[in-house]
Amino acid sequence: MLLLPLTPVYGAVVRTRAAAYRHGILHRATLDVPVVSVGNLSFGGTGKTPMVIALARDLIRRGRRPAILTRGYGRSDRAPVVLLGPDPVASAAQAGDEPLEIARQLPGVPVIVDANRIRGGREAIRHHADIVLLDDGFQHLKLARDLDLVLADASDPWGGGHLPPIGRLREPLTALRRANALIVTKLNPDNEELANIAATLDRRGVDLPVFGARLEPVRWVTPRGEQPPGAIAGRRVAAFAGIGRPQGFVATLERLGAVIAATFWRPDHHRWTAGEVNRIVEQAGREGAIPVTTSKDAVKLPPDAGAWVLEVEMRPTGGSWDPLWALAPEVPG
User: Fold this and answer.
1) Could you give the CA distance from residue 124 to residue 110 in angstroms, rounded to a whole number?
2) If exposure means fewest CB atoms within 10 Å of the residue's CB, which of 31, 72, 102, 274 is most exposed?
């Protein structure tokens, strides 16, 4: 309750900043190629990284040359980095865990890690990109975008309903008026959350198309090679991860039929040490369980960690991203 008076102050600051850009008091830079922003309204756990990867793959299928702009949250080195997968020459400390994951998943696609997104965009163009995806870009108002996409986790779409310091909303719900679409991720199989979220937007006077997407398990990468998602069914697992909302990882494991024997959660972007991972693997062994983690965490693990890594893919519930691109047909070209 002591922090409650600070919430209106935070809200006033973000509203004033957004209004300054909207009215041209603060200038927005533009690039010579289309910009697609993928962001969210709340802190953490909405699936931005798999969404960026999915949209990049879709653009490649359409004949485009995408690049990814990202700040590389949590890295210790502030120098700009250009990553090219599938084996980028950089560490998580230099580039950040999410940029490394993106580069590994998108071979040949430039991933520009730079807090200065305008400079990063120009670097992307020098790498022959004809379209850029701005990762975590909704609040990065300095760079103009052609398509502004906001993600919301179906299980907690509004970050608890409050701005910091008591909630996880980065901006008020009305900020969605500057977006082009809301994409609800991590939906249940029946998509029942979509109607409730659309109704909330209607009550707040936000006229915005609402789409659905779901993280689908693709494969397990194990010390003995790749396994299908169902290979974990009936097995005891010790899950460990440093991600925004580990509840989603648990839900996925349970849907695959895994038996949760133990969990080890760390803060988002946690840097795993060899000793820490060894202790988890040893405890998993005592529990008769397989240590399992996410692909985001995998880029920070020792090569011989011995964990099973779950790779997932963001897929549209409607079967195609076409309705999304139809909001700005000139973007995918």
Assistant:
1) 7
2) 274
